[in-house]
Amino acid sequence: MLTTFIATGALALAASTPIADIQGRAHVSPFRGEDVTTRGIVTTVVHNGFYLQDPTGDGDNATADGVFTYTGTAPGVSSGDEVEVAGTVVEFLPGGDPENLSITEIHPSSVRILARQRPLPIAVVIGGSGRIPPGDIMDDDALTIFEPSHDGIDFWESLEGMRVRLVAPRVVGPTNAFGEVWVAVDNGFSGMSAGGALTATLRDANPERVQIDDALLPAPMPAFDTGDVMADVVGVVDYRFGCYEVLPGASPAAVSAAPAPASVSLPGGRERLSIASFNVRNLSPADTDRVPRLAEIVVRSLGAPAILVMQEIQDSSGPVDDGTAGATATLDTLAAAIRRAGGPTYAAREVAPADGADGGVPGGNIRVAVLFDSTRISFVDRGAADANTGTSAVPAGDSVMLTLSPGRVDPANAAWEAARKPLAAEFRVGAVPLFLVACHFSSRSGTTPEFGSVQPPFDPRSGKRFAQAEIVRDFVQSILRLDPDARVIVAGDFNDDVFSGALAPLSSSTALFDLHWRLSEEERYSYVYEGNAHAYDRILVSPALVAGAAVDIVHVCSGSANAASDHDPVVASVVPLRTPPGGAGGGIIRSVFPNPSRGVTTIVLSGRSPAMITIHDARGRRVRRLSPPGANANQFLWDGKDDTGRPVAPGVYFVRVLSADGAAARRIVRMHARE
């Protein structure tokens, strides 16, 4: 681009269009494609242009008073120059990606320097007593209405190209490999955890966060952790790679440090069993720096759980694409490091994927795997599983067993194409079977930016995760159909939030209870992406394990700039040997009569705690939800009809109870009505 730079006072001033008018009350300039002349102060100079700002502005918070002037090469201006720019208004699309928002720019034909060393425009104060970003709504009108006071994406657009002062910004996403760090300003955040993370919820997308980039700094961005608080940061607002960001001219400085990471806090006791789920981020034997750090986390922070479910275990040759699929060396390396760190001697189980079939880093063959402490729990090895053969639940006397242990869950299903297949395993706690399903659902790769042109953002793999959740739910139900009191744990990285519709088959299933609901909303996170904290890693249990179960997410990784992984581990404590008096359902369910029945069945509970009572068919599908009649809060009646009022077919059904006293199930037999 050829731009003419003209010395001071060489020409008479032309009619000028204010920058605020060029920006307009919108994401796209009303002058797009038109030639304009405007004036302002050069605030920041970069290698291919400069930021220009009106020193007085129009007083309208909905219109930005700054604009980027693109020269293509180093511009012949300096910060503090007052200039007149003539050129064409362009909406530049970063990377040519239509999923990004565009940036309003002027591509100048001439730049006239009017004066030197002018004071820079006063930075707009964001936070404190200044402007406060919207705290929960990113956008609720598909970008059709421009509402900077209501929609976070519009708020940051209203500051495009302007100098801002971020007041006491608190780090909500640690410094990454690109020199970027996410912050929220003082007095401008909601839903913050004890450690300083901004937790995403169904109602809160956390649009108050913004990225600080080191693109203009003389040195790399310092390593900031989530919870650190900086001194005020002054810079210009820009937009890159799907994110609004502030480009400071001076390196940010911390004024207070993040709280130290905590260790697991769960009830103990000989009757309890601990299980953890941990995504260890493409772990291979070559990770000589990370392996001992992960081992320290397992021993010191997690308390060396009896069962450790891991995701992203690479094969023994790591990312070297040499046809290796087994992960014996990877698992042995980690187990040995845990032992050196003072932990137990863990044994490992896996089912190797077919080479290149399960996605992830090419050559790495990531999979889910299990470590367990054989002094506390016994593994049931049954059959010889391979990558393509699925395991099933079959009767075993009065109980149930798996045909393959370990084994994969429905590995041939199209839902698992280029994705990690779940690993099912059978354990024994004493004489009681315990079933585990270890998961790592499809990634969110390809999801449109949160601060992007597609609102709400589109996740192309959401449907795939929904199908995966259905498969896992159906597998768990196949176990519970044979034994309603079976102890089942589902754990892993589900790559989606606890409130997501994609995981509805799991979250709405009466076969499983998500232990994350026992945490406060602000603490339900294990992964931080672009300053938003998400609950991707979770543990769910069957009704027989709900009573007494506890969960904790140990935030040792997600908020650290130098973490051993990018996910926090989640740990649960359950009481697998809790056996209600009278067998399955005893204690909580006092009686079910008559049983078998042709008419009304009365279900009486032992306590009067609020309870959810549901009737399920032999396939585990809910047919009826019951409410107590009148004042008898512990008595429920089933008239043999489903939720639509239609009589159910004769056969075997189950009543399931979930209450503050625990969970239980009891078999009910419906007979043909008398003619």
Beta strand %? 25-35%
Provide the number of structural domains: 4
Give the termini distance in whole angstroms: 91 Å
Rg, Cα atoms, Å: 30 Å
- The 3D shape can be described as elongated
Assign the CATH superfamily of the largest domain. Answer: Endonuclease/exonuclease/phosphatase
Number of strands: 39
Total of DSSP H or I helical runs spanning 4+ residues: 6
Q: Give the helix level as a range of percent.
A: under 10%
Task: Catalogue the unreliable spans.
Answer: 579-586
CATH class of the largest domain: Alpha Beta
Largest sheet descriptor: 7 strands, mixed
Structural class by SSE content: mainly beta
CATH topology of the largest domain: Deoxyribonuclease I, Chain A
The overall pLDDT average reads: 93
> Strand order of the main beta sheet, please?
7-8-13-14-11-10-9
Characterization of the model:
- The chain is mainly β.
- It folds into four domains: 4-115, Beta Barrel (OB fold (Dihydrolipoamide Acetyltransferase, E2P)); 123-260, OB fold (Dihydrolipoamide Acetyltransferase, E2P) (Beta Barrel); 273-574, 4-Layer Sandwich (Deoxyribonuclease I, Chain A), CATH 3.60.10; 589-670, Sandwich (Immunoglobulin-like).
- Helices cover 9% and strands 32% of the residues.
- The protein has six helices and 39 strands.
- The strands form nine sheets. The chain has a seven-stranded mixed sheet, with no helix packed on it. Strands 20, 23, 24, 25, 26, 27 and 30 form a seven-stranded mixed sheet that branches.
- Strand 2 (35-46) and strand 3 form a beta hairpin.
- Helix 3 (290-301) packs across helix 4 (328-340).
- The longest helix is centred in the last third of the chain and has 21 residues, at 462-482.
- The radius of gyration is 30 Å and the shape is elongated.
- The N and C termini lie far apart (91 Å).
- Residues 579-586 have low confidence and may be disordered.
